[in-house]
Amino acid sequence: MPENFDLIIIGAGPGGYVCAFRAAQLGLKVALIDKRATLGGTCLNVGCIPSKALLHSSEQFAFAKSHAAAHGIKLGSVELDLATFLKRKDEVVAKNVGGLALLAKSRKVTVLTGTATFTAANTLAIKGEKETSTVTAKNIVIATGSAPVELPFMKFDGTIVVSSDQAIAFPAVPKKLIVVGGGVIGVELGSVWSRLGSEVTVVEFLPKIIATYDDDIVRNFTRIIGKQGIKIETNTKVTGLRYSKIENRDSKMSAATLLAERDGKPLEFAADVVLVAVGRRPYTDQLGLEQAGVQLDEKKRVKVDAHLKTTAPGVWAIGDVIAGPMLAHKAEEDGYAVAEWIAGKAGHVNWDLVPTVVYTEPEVASVGLGEDAAKAANRAINVGKFNFAANGRAIAQDATDGFVKIIADAKTDRILGAQILGHGAGELISEVVTHMEYGGSAEDLARTIHAHPTMSEAVKEAGLAVSKSAIHAL
Ligand code: FAD
Ligand code: NAD
Fold it and tell me: pLDDT tens digit string along 279-301?
């Protein structure tokens, strides 16, 4: 007899494990399946966590090399030990995934390792390394996440044409790194390797990088990371790759040449490694969705209703595999709510208030409606902007680049959105999310006391600036 559970979750990423833990808290008998040997999915194993560990270490390196002297700190020669640098990242990952394993055990969640395939809507075959088993449940949640998009004319080869999976663990610092795609992965991992000495060029199809942010944010961000040494080539369409002859590889010649065009004119970029970061696709390979009656939408995402139910009874889907931003915290909220719905409780997700963060230095963060989108939609808005250059803490810690922007409804003053470019923007945005969650106005934000001296005072000042009453600005 196959083992029967109240709930089985396929995929132990931030969506899947949060769903499993919440369901177990609510008293359900839960199984969590992943084909990876460790829990945590893309995010903890090869995504959010390792990339942030690398960003942090590379910031330390850049500080030691280029900025310590200005603080009166003499370090002598500063060198990179890449093996230790990468080992620390692996330790950070191990600590995180190990923590999840402990939590799963203490919550009595059954963890199964293997690839799950539907044989019916309530039955899964799990193919492990040695054997295949069968499990059943009244409710099954698909939380299988996403995988890197491959360019059809430039397939991943694992060494020269790579995805983020390899770019978190290059065995040596590439001399010339070309990043195709100026999105989040492109600028984050581009920053890491640029700080370590790579000549990084980001090739972006659109007229701007990190294109979901407002033009003024992107303009300043592009200038800042340009000064840090990253070359940006926008309006550039990649057309192919020419590998150099193997016999030349040990010489000064680069391993390949990226072929592209701008305004119909051909361009070439020498590359030792090409990181393709043009987005991720929902991952439903090997799931056997047709056996369960689960349908996909036009973009090959699992189709769900407003309560994340798929087209098959008792089958739900969450996270990167469904529509919406491909972000860990969004997947987590999906997972939490589905566990509550399955347990008969009132789950809730406010998908309008998913913050986004780019973890470069400075960081970029947003929530809600941007100024450009509000104007394009003819919304009557007031915008308050405050530069970190006028913030005492920012001056004290060399973090004067950037600004906070609050977008409020012109009539009601209700905050519609915020965008922040600056050191720690990812932490600062949370406060705006909270205000918005409770329907707060720019005046509410402005009249909230902020500790001095903190970068967060710039958020308060931007709130004041909405009504043209910022104190530390002209
Ligand atoms: P995933 O984390 O992708 O987990 C899905 C799991 O399902 C995987 O472990 C997979 O092995 C398993 N699986 C798939 N099919 C099967 C099957 N048939 N049987 C068994 N198991 C299966 N997001 C942020 O919010 N912040 C960040 O800073 C951030 N940084 C990122 C950096 C990088 C380099 C990358 C690649 C992504 C980053 N993301 C970040 C995105 C984030 O990783 C995803 O949004 C998040 O992991 C999605 O969670 P999920 O639970 O939907 O799926
Ligand atoms: P992305 O969607 O953020 O950016 C892809 C970029 O590639 C876009 O700017 C797009 O215009 C460009 N592009 C697409 N096709 C191209 C082509 N042929 N030539 C040149 N440019 C092209 O995708 P990503 O950076 O690969 O990240 C994937 C997902 O992972 C995203 O959904 C993101 O949310 C998530 N992620 C999040 C974080 C974070 O939250 N800090 C970090 C990394 C990844």
Answer: 999 999 999 999 999 999 999 99
Ligand at shortest distance from the CA of 205: 2
- Residue 120's beta-bridge partner residues? 123
Question: Of 394, 464, 467, which is closest to residue 425 (Cα–Cα)?
Answer: 394
User: What's the rounded Cα separation, in Å, for the pair 344 and 139?
Assistant: 12
Question: Which residue from 149, 166, 185 has its CB within 8 A of the most atoms of ligand 2, so it is best to mutate?
Answer: 185
CA quadruple 134, 135, 140, 142: dihedral sign: negative
Angle between helices 82-106 and 48-62 (to 10 degrees): 140
Tell me the one-letter amino acid at 278. Answer: V
Is the CB of 455 within 6 Å of ligand 2? no
Instruction: Enumerate domains of the chain plus CATH numbers.
Output: 3-147+281-352 (3.50.50.60), 161-275 (3.50.50.60), 362-465 (3.30.390.30)
Up-side HSE of residue 437: CA atoms within 13 Å toward CB? 13
Please report which residue ranges of 140-179 form alpha helices under DSSP H.
164-167
**Ligand 1 residue neighbourhood (C-beta within 6 Å):** 10-16, 33-36, 41-43, 47-48, 51, 115-116, 143-146, 164, 185, 283, 286-287, 319-320, 326-329, 331, 359
Torsion of Cα atoms, 212 then 216 then 217 then 219, to 10°: 100
H or E element in which residue 226 lies: helix 215-227
Distances (CA, A) of 163 to 53, 150, 157, 201, 222: 18, 8, 9, 16, 23
Spatial separation of the C-alpha atoms in residues 365 and 188, rounded to whole Å:
13
Concerning whether 435 is annotated as a catalytic residue, the answer is no
* 184 CA to centre of ligand 1 in angstroms: 15
Bond from prior residue into 453 cis (ω within 30 degrees of 0) = yes
**CA proximity to 37, closest of 12, 57, 19:** 12
Ligand 2 centroid–CA 185 distance in Å is 6
Substitution site in 33, 38, 43, 132 for ligand 1 pocket (most atoms within 8 Å of beta carbon): 43
Alpha carbon of 101 to ligand 1 centroid (Å):
17
Would the pTM of this model clear 0.90, i.e. be above it? yes
Ligand 2 site, residue 260, Cβ cutoff 6 A: no
- Indicate which residue of 67, 307, 348, 452 is catalytic: 452
Atom of ligand 1 minimally distant from the CA of 34: 21
Nearest C-alpha neighbor of 175 from the set 151, 150, 200? 200
* 29-82 per-position pLDDT tens digit: 999 999 999 999 999 999 999 999 999 999 999 999 999 999 999 999 999 999
Distance between CA atoms of residues 231 and 249, nearest Å: 24
